[in-house]
């Protein structure tokens, strides 16, 4: 291939390959245990894959309707109402997307304009800021302070202005494992009263929440929900991150704008997977069992590393555990994470990548969506560091 010789004006000059791709690739070449990128090392339910192949074999191989299969949207509406009392109309207020990533991107693309400001809380999941940059808007960062990583609403009040178009929240939170409380939601609701500010609520770990806490979905708070896009992902709930199916909920007026972008962004997403989820959701209650399933893994992992030299952060939700290594090494977190992968054969994610200003708190993120045997193997390594 000849070399492109004209100059490229990058729209994302700060962006390289994501840390998830990098660390998973390093784990593979180093034959290290991969607790870096967040995905299960166990399979999804065979009933779900059977439904997927059944859909393909029965000819469901053409475009789905632009907003998604109505049967699946109906299942989502029912589940959202049962769990959170929020009522979303399947025809006009729910859209099936290519994972939560596309839902997030599309919500921003559809509603945030050049020079608008979008408030994000760092450490933040990595796809928010590039989407904000691509529409020419400006990310306003509020840094959450460890080890609690709680939102200080007074600080939020200080940064919002006429220029603020959107606030992005994420509960349970990646990478810290914190959750927002009902009081947090009420404070946000009050703060945004009488403003035009939209909320994008990333709730992909809605069913992975521990110690008896309930997920405080924006859908529980009608005054907040009326200005919000809520995104979720079947990948997290059904152990199918590779199917890349998620969804977005929003009031009809907002969803109308979302779909204007969605229809030219992807038009519609993988039909057989949507059919499989739709039939699966009709009969399974797996999402309700996920709390216990992952609490067992969280507890097993934490218990088996409690005497290591790492300090454990609290994980109230998500499938991530933060480990502080400040008593072990002074290396920066990227160097340390790479060294652990190469020398100790265990891969994690350095948390500095979740900040815009590289904040090195000497904390690594480990994913515990793994078989028990993998977690015990990981613990053995961690205890030897
Ligand atoms: N938001 C958060 C907080 C995530 O952790 C992830 C992926 N792990 C996503 C969004 C993207 O989800 P999906 O894989 O469905 O695109
Ligand atoms: N969300 C996953 C994580 O936080 C990664 C998804 C991805 O690789 N883009 O690890």
Strand content: 5-15%
* Rg value: 21 Å
The residue fraction in helices comes out at 40-55%
Largest sheet: 7 strands, mixed
Which fold name corresponds to the CATH topology of the largest domain? Aspartate Aminotransferase, domain 2
How are the strands of the biggest sheet laid out side by side?
2-8-7-6-5-3-4
Average residue pLDDT: 97
Distance from first to last alpha carbon:
46 Å
**CATH homologous group name of the largest domain:** Type I PLP-dependent aspartate aminotransferase-like (Major domain)
Low-confidence stretches: none
Tally the helices: 14
Q: So what's the CATH class of the largest domain? A: Alpha Beta
Small molecules bound: 4'-deoxy-4'-aminopyridoxal-5'-phosphate, glutamine
Principal-axis shape equals globular
By CATH, the architecture of the largest domain is named 3-Layer(aba) Sandwich
Outline the structure in words.
With 385 residues, this protein is an alpha/beta fold. The chain has two domains: 19-38 and 288-384, Aspartate Aminotransferase, domain 1, CATH 3.90.1150.10; 46-284, Type I PLP-dependent aspartate aminotransferase-like (Major domain) (Aspartate Aminotransferase, domain 2, 3-Layer(aba) Sandwich), CATH 3.40.640. The chain contains 14 helices and 13 strands. It has helices spanning 19-29, 46-57, 70-84, 99-111, 128-134, 153-159, 182-192, 222-225, 234-237, 252-265, 271-283, 286-305, 333-344, 372-383, and strands at 33-34, 94-97, 117-122, 138-143, 164-170, 198-202, 228-233, 246-249, 311-312, 320-324, 346-347, 349-350, 363-367. It has a seven-stranded mixed beta sheet, with helices on both faces. A four-stranded antiparallel beta sheet has the order 9-10-13-12. A two-stranded parallel sheet has the order 1-11. The longest helix is centred in the C-terminal third of the chain and has 20 residues, at 286-305. The chain is globular and about 55 Å long. The N and C termini lie far apart (46 Å). The mean pLDDT is 97. 4'-deoxy-4'-aminopyridoxal-5'-phosphate binds at residues 38, 99-101, 125, 170, 174, 202, 204, 233, 235, 241, 246.
């Amino acid at each position: 291939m000849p070399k492109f010789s004209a100059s490229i004006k990058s729209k994302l000059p700060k962006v390289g390959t994501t840390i998830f791709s990098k660390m998973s690739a390093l784990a593979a070449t180093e034959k290290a245990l991969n607790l870096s990128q967040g995905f299960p090392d166990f399979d999804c339910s065979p009933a779900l894959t059977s439904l997927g192949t059944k859909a393909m074999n029965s000819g469901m191989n053409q475009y789905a309707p632009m907003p998604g299969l109505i049967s699946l949207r109906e299942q989502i509406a029912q589940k959202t109402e049962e769990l959170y009392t929020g009522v979303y109309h399947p025809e006009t207020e729910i859209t099936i997307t290519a994972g939560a990533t596309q839902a997030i991107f599309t919500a921003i693309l559809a509603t945030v304009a050049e020079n608008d400001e979008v408030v994000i809380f760092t450490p933040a999941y990595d796809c928010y800021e590039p989407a904000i940059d691509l529409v020419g808007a400006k990310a306003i960062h509020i840094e959450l302070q460890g080890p609690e990583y709680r939102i200080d609403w007074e600080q939020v009040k200080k940064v919002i202005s006429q220029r603020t178009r959107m606030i992005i929240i994420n509960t349970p939170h990646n990478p810290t494992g914190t959750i927002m409380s009902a009081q947090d939601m009420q404070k946000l609701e009050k703060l945004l009263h009488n403003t035009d500010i939209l909320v994008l609520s990333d709730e992909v770990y809605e069913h992975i929440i521990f110690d008896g806490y309930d997920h405080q979905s924006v859908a529980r708070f009608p005054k907040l929900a009326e200005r919000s896009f809520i995104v979720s992902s079947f990948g997290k709930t059904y152990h199918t991150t590779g199917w890349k199916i998620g969804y977005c909920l929003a009031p009809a007026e907002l969803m109308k704008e979302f779909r204007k972008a969605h229809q030219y962004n992807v038009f519609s997403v993988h039909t057989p997977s949507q059919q499989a989820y739709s039939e699966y959701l009709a009969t399974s209650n797996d999402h309700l069992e996920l709390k216990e399933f992952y609490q067992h893994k969280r507890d097993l992992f934490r218990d088996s590393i409690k005497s290591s030299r790492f300090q454990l952060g609290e994980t109230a939700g998500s499938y991530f555990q933060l480990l502080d290594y400040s008593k072990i090494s002074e290396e920066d977190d990227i160097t340390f994470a790479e060294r652990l992968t190469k020398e100790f054969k265990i891969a994690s994610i350095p948390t500095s990548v979740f900040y815009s200003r590289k904040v090195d708190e000497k904390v690594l993120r480990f994913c515990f969506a793994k078989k028990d045997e993998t977690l015990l193997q990981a613990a053995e390594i961690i205890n030897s560091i």
